[in-house]
Design a protein that fits this description.
The protein is mostly helical. It has helices at about 1-25, 30-45. The longest helix has 24 residues, at about 1-25.
Length: about 45
């Protein structure tokens, strides 16, 4: 269980860094963003 939580946290941090990088470059990745917002509720509610 802890391993899943750690992986979810790592995924969230990586995505946050990726989105920050894109914002700084004024680049958009709508396909990934759609997948991210579709996936996050499942990760957040997984216990």
């Amino acid at each position: 269980m802890y391993q899943e939580t750690a992986k979810n946290g790592e995924f969230y941090q990586n995505c946050t860094q990726y989105f920050e990088f894109l914002r700084k470059k004024s680049i958009f990745d709508y396909d990934f963003e759609d997948e991210y917002y579709f996936t996050m509720p499942a990760i957040s509610n997984h216990q």
